[in-house]
Amino acid sequence: MRATIRGIYTTALTRLFSTAGHEVVQATGPIRERFEREFGDGPAELSCTTSRDRQGVSLSGGPEAVEEGRRLLAVERDTFVWDDPTPLGAVFEGRVEGTRGGGAVVSLEGGEGYLPFDDSEEYVEEGDTLRVQVTEPTPPWSDDDPRVSTTIRARTPSGLAALREGESGIDAPDAETAGLVDLLSVDVPGNWGVSLGRRAREANLSDLEAGLSRAADLAAAFEKGELNPYATAWCWFGRESRFSLDEVRREVTTTMAGHHRIKAGSNRASDAVDFAEALCEPDEFPFDAVASQFGPREGDDLAMEHGKPDGRVITLGRGEVIEYDPEGSITLRREMTAGGSYDALGTPRESGDVAITTLKEGRWWYPTTYRDGGGATKGTYVNVCTPVELFPKSARYVDLHVDVVKHPDGTVERVDGEELDEAVDAGLVSDELAEKARGVAAAIERALA
């Protein structure tokens, strides 16, 4: 299999794919220098790209290639991978449900898409039925809808060549590159124009021919009604996964402890990592140095991003950091709104209540104590989760369902164990991860009793 890889995990993933016997193609300049070897420029069966928020990567390509990518990226027990029902390049018959901002919301089989008005060749209004193609999938943990367009393109993960439905002629970076098409023995289907990407300028003729030939095959498949020939999967890396990828990257080049964990926090932090590694190689994760420079610190506003094993993320609210420990923990204060009761505790949720949550980087659990306006305890809820990561604007983890609560009268009980069992049966949580979660819950239960 040949794959293209982009983003903050590129060095580690290039190492993983290469060690597994796969070929990484179209490598960037820094990767070529880092590995000190030649990389091909030919078409790829798989595209692996870091998500916009740097929390994970997307895998797009043929179903078999995506499945192999899924296998390789399951580096630790807190790695989660989900299939995307609206994969890159898929074509749908959609219905316009309404408008939002500068575009339209289009219902698709398996979800919704967002069609910017600039990406539609015709005037769009509610109730219209449109043939659209996914141009930018979005991860399940994102609130955004995948982006779609009414322009249908037959393109492969290689980025070398594509065909445009309903057009003619050749769109290329320059006239010289456009002229290469005449030298290729590829039968382009009628009613499809040729589009060559920037990488086509450096590609040799055999690679360009292979890329254009695959695009032509895809166009023919579209015309036969095969509208979803490719797959997309999303991989979210937990804290253990990021540190495991550090070890893989360290086999290739200087890599500080917490390299991927820090880079996932922000673009500024990512640049700082590159600078630090050019000077030295810290052997411990420098939590205090990272948090001092980028956050979170005392007084900051922090969101609690509560991930679910099915890929969704629920924000449990935002709070103020009222305590900061340079060893890697913070205490968050959130003001609660009235209504209902606290899960599993059964105590009423009233005006004036506050939630005090202590979060420690890398720990598999965190406690939240609820207090009323007078300071009296209304119970403690201990959430069991994948190792907590404290990013500049949010705390992030994936909830593992099973939790431990301590009631106001001192009674301690474990809850939601059946939900963890159901997640295992559904294939959302591995047996290894579930065993870890149950062990953590049992230890907490003993400690609180």
Structure characterization notes:
With 449 residues, the chain is an alpha+beta fold. The protein folds into four domains: 2-86 and 231-241, no CATH class; 91-149, Beta Barrel (OB fold (Dihydrolipoamide Acetyltransferase, E2P)); 158-223, no CATH class; 295-448, FomD-like (FomD barrel-like fold, Beta Barrel), CATH 2.40.380. The protein is 26% helix and 33% strand. The protein is built from eleven helices and 24 strands. It has helices spanning 10-19, 29-35, 63-73, 175-179, 205-223, 239-250, 259-263, 267-279, 287-294, 417-425, 431-448, and strands at 2-6, 23-24, 46-50, 56-61, 79-83, 91-100, 103-108, 111-116, 129-136, 147-149, 153-155, 161-165, 170-171, 192-196, 231-237, 301-307, 313-325, 329-335, 354-360, 365-371, 377-385, 389-390, 394-406, 412-415. The chain has a seven-stranded mixed β-barrel. The chain has a six-stranded mixed β-sheet with strand order 2-1-3-4-15-5. The chain has a five-stranded antiparallel β-sheet with strand order 8-7-6-9-10, with no helix packed on it. Strand 11 (153-155) and strand 12 (161-165) form a beta hairpin. Helix 1 (10-19) crosses helix 6 (239-250). The chain starts with a strand and ends with a helix. The model has no long low-confidence stretch (mean pLDDT 93).
